Fold this protein.
Amino acid sequence: MVAGGITLYKLAMFAELERRAASEDLAWLAQLVARRQLRTPIEAEASWHDIGEVAQRLVQRQFTGKAVLHLKR
């Protein structure tokens, strides 16, 4: 979906999860990260309470990497 220069993507993996356990794929991804074969550039970290600010920065293209929102119990 595209509106006002913002693109929203949907990822549905239900069919894939039926074929193979998600834990297998997560383990594979973790191995790639550990071997530095998969880049995971994190450019913003914040509390999930600051999601509005982080989303605004993302929309304004102030960073191109990943944003990590921390949840606290």
The beta strands are 2-3, 6-7, 42-47, 66-70. The chain has one domain: 2-70. Residues 22-34 form the longest helix (13 residues).
